[in-house]
From TrEMBL:
It comes from Schizosaccharomyces osmophilus. The keyword Phosphoprotein applies. Residues 82-101, 670-685 have a biased composition (Basic and acidic residues). InterPro entries: AGC-kinase_C, C2_dom, C2_domain_sf, Kinase-like_dom_sf, Pkinase_C, Prot_kinase_dom, Protein_kinase_ATP_BS, Ser/Thr_kinase_AS. One of its GO terms (biological process) is regulation of conjugation with cellular fusion. It is an enzyme of class 2 (transferase). Transmembrane segments: none annotated. GO terms for molecular function: ATP binding; protein serine/threonine kinase activity. It comes from the Eukaryota. This is non-specific serine/threonine protein kinase. Residues 133-285 form the C2 domain. Residues 12-27 have a biased composition (Low complexity). The gene is sck1. Gene3D superfamilies: C2 domain (2.60.40.150), Phosphorylase Kinase, domain 1 (3.30.200.20), Transferase(Phosphotransferase) domain 1 (1.10.510.10).
Length: 697
């Protein structure tokens, strides 16, 4: 990978910022997409220019281009502006363009004179973020090519930081690099001595009072402090590019001081083939009103790929990390980029046999939908494909493991830690509900932690899409302990409110260490859910937390917290008084717990029962277990899986109104529960009474 940067830098013949990389090869092309859109050859070649993509608009800074490309630049700019004009005259609203970079590179002495060439109101220019005083010389194609045209690799290199705001020289800065929900952790910074690099001392530390010259030991400690403020990583990683809107975000922490947060920055790279993005980017603090220092040097290069479809042969299985009802989940490595993912392999025969085809296609569709959209706290789908016998979902690997795993190991969480997870879950549910999706299977096993300790929901196998706020559904599904009473009892069906009930169960379980309705016997558990009292253990939950749980565990869904204004109501509850929702949504609130993860390949947060399994002989291209057998599925059956493969081509969500998987057990169960409770009227407002430590929803 280093070679790529060296190649590019070598070509441009300089190390300066934001250089356009040109080749000495006269046939070198600036190509904006794999299909003919804007293709410009260099002066030495024919010089033909083709344009046909109305969506392309970009801008280059001519000062940054080698001389021989300046003409080309001018030609592009003129043509692009013409395209823009045409678009404007077609009455496309100017503000329909997406804002791009959330951060801008900072200027340094070298780039100071390379300031904006375009007028401030140029729509192609990224608006500087309000809190930054720095100039912006970083552009992106404001309306990138259709997403199906952009597939490739983004090589990102985090070189170093400078002027970090640290209080002592004893630090071990490392960074978490995130692109399109894929996270990578760098090792701690290298000492400059290891790099053979000299170090620079910031001016202010060099002021010397002539009457009191600095002693050698003072100079030495000044030097060490300056060195600590400018850690060097020279770390490279490669990401798969699927969503052209995605930003590279870099967050710097201090490993030595309890993962202390030293700032973060977000940059949307220019996705032009082999274009070198480089700059010093100002780090942002959590609280933007505070003065803050620190910058990072980030380079990235996009390499376009011709491949638009992937299959099992493009991945290598490394470990088994989980088993679900319909298949196994593996830690895999993508062969071309080396990127690590989780691969869920689902047996077609098994889902046909269990009449779960619609749910499985539904899961894939919801993941596609949430992946193409900025969905916080939902595991990101990268690829989906199929063979004759199996379906495959490739998602970002959440190396922090299941919340269940941590809860099991720690017994229970402190309320502030539980609150953090619940708050992120509220945002995840808010997002799903806004998209008319009910999650229906909220439980600690389906809540994963990423490398930083943020949550990500996985397993949308039971989710139901296309259900607006008034709509009801009545499939009997979910995990017993978390089932809302109306799922058991209400013939008219249930609504999104079932997710908030499960959330109430979760808050209780996280803080108290057991589930409020748990019973070893399932029938008893149903009875507890329908009629049981909830007992709060003494001194565990604050008043606000109890009130929050009571609000959620209200048996009448019409009176449940969230019934009127969905997640907004939950967010406004006093339990969350100390949560800054906008910072939380941007993942800028530091998680209360950071999972121990040494590298991308670390599986220590998963059950050894899975991770110790030998996976060497697994054949992803054919049936491997007895359930698949050897008889192939009929063509009619295979047809039901059409559309599962996700190539990031135009998204045609095919959410069918489905009504499958009714458990025959359901009616029997309802009757038994009803018989127990004579006269229970589900429509009655249920008294929210609390008797000391006990309440009935
Ligand atoms: N992206 C991921 N990163 C890390 N681990 C994952 C990921 N996806 C799934 N897992 C692990 O695999 C387990 C099973 O995955 P999942 O719940 O999606 O499978 P399932 O077959 O739908 O399971 P279930 O039977 O519970 O419905 C998860 O609980 C988790 O431990």
């Amino acid at each position: 990978m280093t070679e790529i940067f060296e190649k590019i830098q070598g070509r441009s013949g300089s190390d300066s910022k934001n250089q356009y990389s040109s080749s000495s090869d006269p046939s070198f092309k600036i190509s904006l997409s794999s299909t003919p859109s804007v293709s410009v050859e260099t002066a030495e070649a024919k010089g033909t220019t083709e344009y046909d993509n109305q969506n392309v608009s970009t801008s280059y800074d001519p000062i940054l281009l080698p001389d021989r490309l300046k003409n080309v630049y001018e030609e592009i700019t003129t043509q692009v502006k013409q395209i823009e004009k045409t678009k404007d005259s077609e009455e496309q609203p100017a503000d329909s363009r997406k804002k791009s970079n959330e951060a801008i590179p900072s200027t340094d002495t070298k780039t100071e004179n390379l300031k904006t060439l375009e007028p401030q109101n140029d729509p192609l220019k990224t608006p500087p973020s309000s809190h930054s005083q720095l100039d912006n010389s970083f552009y992106k194609a404001s309306e990138p090519m259709a997403s199906n045209q952009i597939m490739g690799r983004l090589v990102v290199r985090l070189r170093q930081a400078r002027n970090l705001l640290i209080s002592s020289m004893h630090v071990e800065p490392y960074a978490v690099i995130n692109y399109d929900k894929t996270e990578v952790v760098t090792p701690s910074s290298k000492k400059d001595a290891e790099n053979g690099m000299g170090i620079t001392i910031p001016c202010k530390t060099r002021t010397v009072n002539e009457n009191f010259p600095m002693s050698p030991s003072l100079i030495q400690s000044e030097l060490l402090f300056a060195e600590a403020r400018a850690p060097r990583w020279d770390f490279e990683t490669v990401f798969d590019v699927i969503n052209p809107e995605s930003a590279v975000s870099v967050s710097v922490y201090d490993r030595l001081n309890n993962d202390f947060f030293l700032g973060s920055v977000k940059v949307v790279p220019v996705l032009l083939n082999e274009y070198l993005n480089e700059g010093w980017y100002k780090l942002e603090p959590l609280d933007l009103s505070q003065p803050f220092e620190g910058e990072v040097n980030i380079q990235s290069i996009f390499e376009q790929s011709e491949i638009t479809r992937f299959g099992p042969e493009d991945f290598t299985i490394l470990r088994l990390i989980g088993k679900g009802t319909f298949g196994h989940v593996y830690l895999v490595q993508k062969n071309d980029t080396g990127r690590i993912y989780a691969m869920k392999k689902i047996s077609k025969k098994l889902i046909v046999r269990k009449r779960e085809v619609t749910h499985t296609i539904g899961e894939r569709n919801i993941l596609v939908r949430t992946s193409l959209d900025e969905s916080p706290f939902i595991v990101g789908l990268k690829f989906s494909f199929q063979t004759d016998s199996d379906l495959f979902l490739i998602t970002d690997y959440m190396s922090g493991g299941e919340l269940f795993w941590h809860l099991q190991h720690e017994g229970r969480f402190r309320e502030d830690r539980a609150k953090f997870y619940i708050a992120e879950l509220v945002l995840a549910l808010e997002h799903l509900h806004k998209h008319d999706i009910i999650y229906r299977d909220l439980k600690p096993e389906n809540i994963l932690l990423d490398i930083s300790g943020h949550i990500a929901l996985c397993d949308f196998g039971l989710s139901k899409a296309n259900l607006s706020s008034e709509d009801t559904t009545n499939t009997f599904c979910g995990t017993t302990e978390y089932l809302a009473p109306e799922v058991l009892l209400d013939d008219k069906g249930y609504t999104k409110q079932v997710d908030f009930w499960s959330l109430g169960v979760l808050v209780f379980e996280m803080c108290c260490g057991w589930s409020p309705f748990y019973a070893p016997d399932v029938q008893q558990m149903y009875r507890n859910i329908a009629f049981g009292k909830v007992r709060f253990p003494k001194g565990v939950l604050s008043q606000e937390a109890r009130s929050f749980v009571r609000g959620l565990l209200n048996r009448n869904p019409k009176h449940r917290l969230g019934a009127i204004a969905d997640a907004e109501e939950l967010k406004a509850h006093p339990f969350f008084d100390d949560i800054n929702w906008s910072l939380l949504a941007k993942k800028k609130l530091p998680p209360p717990f950071k999972p121990q993860v040494q590298s991308d390949l670390d599986v220590s947060n998963f059950d050894q029962e899975f991770t110790n399994t030998n996976v060497r002989n697994i054949n992803l291209n054919g049936p491997q277990d007895s359930v698949n057998g050897s008889t192939p599925l009929s063509n009619t059956m295979q047809d039901r899986f059409k559309g599962f493969t996700f190539t990031n081509k135009s998204l045609e969500d095919r959410f069918e109104g489905f009504h499958v998987d009714e458990f025959s057990e359901r009616d029997r169960l309802k009757d038994s529960v009803r018989n127990e409770k004579n006269g229970f009227d589900k429509d009655d407002p249920v008294a929210d009474s609390v008797f000391g430590e006990t309440f009935e929803g």
